[in-house]
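Example 3.2
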Amino acid sequence: MPNKAFEPVQLGALTLTNHLVMAPMTRSRALGNVPNELMAEYYRQRVSAGLIITEGTSPSADGLGYARIPGLFNQEHVTNWQRVTETVHHHGGHIFVQLMHAGRIFHGHNLPEGAEGVAPSAIAAAGEMWTDQAQMQPNGTPRALRTEELVRVRDEFVHSAKLALEAGFDGVELHGANGYLLEQFLSPHSNQRTDEYGGSVQNRARFVLEVTRAVVEAIGTERTGIRLSPWGVASDMPHYPEIDETYAYLAEELQKIGVVYLHLADHESMGAPAVPAETVATIRQKFTNTIILAGGYNTVAQINEALDSGRADLVAIGRPFISNPDLVERLRNGLPLAPVDPATMYAPGPNGFADGYTDYPVADGQPAGTFSPSYEA
């Protein structure tokens, strides 16, 4: 029988080598919020994915809520990201950068001087986050963005998207999931505004759609995707009555805008409630461009079922890609998957930041290898 997972597929103008996507995963290796050689090696090792989506990357200083996450809003960022994209392209891969503004998920210790935590409303998220200066600390209380400021924040996404193309990325994914800034506008728990960006489902979706339209106008539909997490509860995002109405409306409007893909995250495998099948079916009906499904996929049977059913056009895989740099080959050949070490997902090991990052071996026990420092594209 044909094995659809490993067949080539079109994504806009790109021909992907297979239907497997490396999902975006924060790894906290960007010291000073700047991409580096170690990150280039990490993505190179996983280049057999049909598409790589980078870790969340902030479009502004205000969006750098976590320790050691990368930015993409100045020329130093562009120059260092170019090293990553050149490496991936040299080895035959494709890579989108995920633009993630953390919004109210921040602590002041993790922000550069002069930056501040901002959000739709001045409501702190429950929970704590790591800071290198003081270890675990409560999430900060954000400042509510004024209506007139939203154009600036929108334009920060646009500027970052333009820099992404300058850095050599094949496109950008707007992070509208996991409780970060764009999703904070969608939820009535984090968005209690009384202007035209709060209240109704349409008003709460307004900023997400304005950002998406502006990015599409700047870099094109085929280079713009978006990630959503309907029914997700990450980052203190309780459920609310209009969830399905919200995401049906978004799917319809995103189809009109024409983004190349809609990436749906289901966090059931990490303990969250499952996204109802009816929700996915409604989104699939209203959004007919490429849909990427993510959420606990780790067998070829699961992947092919999602593809063959028509629910998904591509399938994204997260944590197995951390500990299996040769994940595509392991799945294709029915080889066992190595477990991930939770202790080094976001932090260095005894030997530094490479531990649990670029030191996972391939299936035969050999190192995943490194590229030559003298490599030139």
